[in-house]
Write a structure and sequence with these properties.
With about 200 residues, the protein is an alpha/beta fold. It contains five helices and nine strands; from the N terminus they run E-E-E-E-H-E-H-E-H-E-E-H-E-H. It is globular, with a radius of gyration of 16 Å.
């Protein structure tokens, strides 16, 4: 479901996801996550894309957020029209059920999120803090940069935190959609465990 810029939709999504707690010894305990609207404040997580260049990656990320029951932001300008056939092919029919907001610029994105309690977390190779060592919280937004240029310095300066995905020495970077999926999975795992803590 496409929203007008800066307006968040409230669509009822109820997928069921199972997450294993790897901290148990032999038997992995599984947690069932019901992403019903009343839980949005508990497991609220967003993925924001800064000026994406490649339609396939953007479509894949929107498919991801649709399947996980979370929401997304696209910060324009994009390097392609959202009517692009490769964008639609990557997102498939999942694009009909995803909640995402288009923002005309970084400033528009900042205005739309003014007063929100969540943190803005940039995924970047220019950090020493691993996403595996970070404590995610409800309301966090994961920000990924454009495939060609990342994000400008002023965006680095405005985010709450910068996280890196550790990689083998000599490797430049992961595909942006894969990076978003890895970090979103860890964030949702932590939020699910936190919600079930005594």
């Amino acid at each position: 479901m496409l929203c007008e810029a800066g307006v968040r939709s409230q669509q009822l999504l109820m997928p069921t996801i199972y997450i294993a707690d790897s901290r148990t010894s032999n038997r992995k305990k599984q947690y069932r996550l019901d992403f019903i609207f009343k839980m949005k404040n508990v497991l609220n997580l967003r993925i924001a894309m800064y000026q994406p260049d490649i339609p396939q990656n953007t479509g894949t990320i929107l498919r991801l957020v649709s399947c996980l029951g979370i929401e997304a932001d696209i910060i324009e300008p994009c390097g392609f029209p959202l009517s692009h056939k490769k964008f639609k092919r990557a997102g498939m029919d999942y694009l009909d059920s995803v909640n995402f907001v288009r923002h005309a610029s970084w400033a528009a994105f900042q205005r739309a999120n003014h007063g929100q309690s969540g943190r803005l977390i940039l995924l970047t190779t220019q950090s020493n803090l691993s996403y595996l060592d970070y404590d995610f919280a409800p309301g966090d937004t994961l920000l990924v940069g454009s495939e060609g240029a990342g994000v400008p310095d002023f965006v680095h300066d405005e985010v709450s935190e910068r996280l890196v995905i550790p990689m083998t020495s000599g490797m430049r970077s992961l595909n942006v959609a894969i990076a978003a999926a890895m970090v979103a999975g860890e964030a949702l795992r932590q939020l699910a465990l936190h919600d079930r803590a005594p």
